[in-house]
Amino acid sequence: MGLLYNIGIHLYNCGIALAACCNPKARLLRSGRKGLLRHIETSMARGNSGKVVWIHAASLGEFEQGRPIIERIKRDMPDMRVVATLFSPSGYEIRKNYPLADNIFYLPSDTPANVRRFLDAVRPDVAIFIKYEFWLNYLGELHRRNVPTYLVSAIFCPSQVHFRPWGGLWRRALECYNTIFVQDEASRTLLEGIGYNRVVIAGDTRFDRVAEIACNAKRIPTIERFASGAPLFVAGSTWGKDEELLIELINANPDTRFVVAPHEMEETRMQHIEDKVVGGVVRYTRSTESHDFSHAQVMILDTIGLLSSVYGYARWAYIGGGFGVGIHNTLEAATFSLPIAFGPNYHKFLEARDMVALGAATSVCSAAELKAWFTPLKTEGEALQKASSSAYEYTKEHCGATETIVGLIFSKRD
After folding, report:
1. How far is CA 61 from CA 110, 132, 206, 349, in A?
2. Is 209 part of any domain?
3. Residue 295 is part of which domain span?
4. pLDDT tens for residues 179-221?
5. Residue 361 near residue 352, CB atoms below 8 Å
């Protein structure tokens, strides 16, 4: 099975090389890996020579999940050198200059030779993987080198390969983790069912992250001028199907202003919104200090880095992705006490299931269902207050995972 895994890694790398000619993300990953190990070796030879913690995240979402851990390490152990890696080109490009990490790299491909060379250069004293990361050669080599290794904010479900009859290699990989910090009791039960007992229920560090975001939300004068005192609905990380539902809702509510933040800012999709919305559309990047927003009902947030703060101006939220592989970050909206709607593919997200059960969020499958959810929240103050309070209390009650994780990992270390 190990041989098949390594063949699979090799074939995947070949696929990236082939896709690079026509896929921008594949092209970024390929160029980012060019000379990567030499760059890592040179970078690690410079700077702080103290103890090293290596933190790996697959993409931007997982990196944000790891940020509270990095911030706590730098606050409590400022001499610790933090080395962060990302697999996703989009995540790396957005966070490559994150100031609290001493070094940020692409993750070199998980081949035995690359792994040995990477670990020889980084020499981590502790390794922390975020949520779903199971690179088998990295885990095996860390285990052979006796590097304490942890998986944090993990969540498991019965459909994962670890719990399938053919998942023996992946079950053995779990043994490479000294401790797995899971989000919920169900995950611990699943792991204990296959004989893995080094489990701590710590919760999800994203709650700590969004609480920090809410406390330090940016003031955005353009959004203030656009809303101009009118109730604001924010739709974040939307895809095409989400936008079709939203366009109907927008046109049916001309007295409400909307901010729509597409997950990918494709010109054709933004133009489609502009063509279909009756009440007028303006793009954030094309507005000026003197811009007249009186004839615009919708603002397209065609930039990155502002959405989490824009939620602070809203009264309601819609989170995209639920008509595809799964919804995006709901907690950024919930921490601002916003009732939330999203598409039907949300069941693998614990926080979404929890908020639906509490009445803070709802799943919709059509424009009619979206309107049925929105209407009472717009017209009935009691309904809005109840859903808003449920969202806020849920995020507040689940803070604290970072303190638990960092405390247990580093409590017995110098």
Report:
1. 21, 11, 9, 13
2. no
3. 214-397
4. 999 999 999 999 999 999 999 999 999 999 999 989 988 899 9
5. yes
